[in-house]
Amino acid sequence: MSLKFINPIPLVRDMEVSRKFYSEVLGLKIVQDYPVFVLFEDHFAIHQAQAYHAMAFGHETEAAARPQGQDNVVLYFETPDLEGMFARLQGQVRVIHPIRQQAWGQKVFRFYDPDGHMVEIGEPM
User: Fold this and answer.
1) Which among 19, 21, 107, 120 is placed 20 to 30 Å from 42, CA to CA?
2) Which of 7, 8, 34, 5 lies closest to 117, judged by CA?
3) Domains: count for the chain
4) Residue 112 · residue 119 · CB < 8 Å
């Protein structure tokens, strides 16, 4: 038996805010759009936290109402136009740090999504 990783699914408190953030602010293309789940191109997805907890645990949980991002997972994307993407996001995201070169030579910047998940955008290596 083999196991294949498909995609991360960060949980979000407000689907409309997150749907707009990932589709309109970051420019990701929506492949499937449901009231509590959105799948974007390249296997990235988001799920409404309360609905996910109800499905997984059989009831809504207190954890679903708390902020979802906990600085323990990074959502990583790449773009060939790193400077353009950084300029485009100015004033729309809470920046962790501007473009920096990492020890391995790649340039990246990091910021928070509406739920506080860390997002990193880097140049292709």
Assistant:
1) 107
2) 8
3) 1
4) yes
DSSP code per residue over 2-23:
---------EES-HHHHHHIII
pLDDT digit of tens for each residue in the chain (125 aa)?
887 888 889 999 999 999 999 999 999 999 999 999 999 999 999 999 999 989 888 887 887 777 788 877 899 999 999 999 999 999 999 999 999 999 999 999 999 999 999 999 999 98
Q: Is position 6 within any domain?
A: no
**DSSP H/E element including 94:** strand 94-101
Interatomic CA distance for residues 48 and 53, integer angstroms: 9
CA separation for the pair 66, 122 (Å, rounded): 29
Q: Are strands 37-40 and 94-101 parallel, antiparallel or unpaired?
A: unpaired
- Pair of tokens at residue 77: 């994307």
Amino acid residing at 46: I
| CATH of residue 41 | 3.10.180.10
- Domain assignment of residue 80, given as a range: 11-122
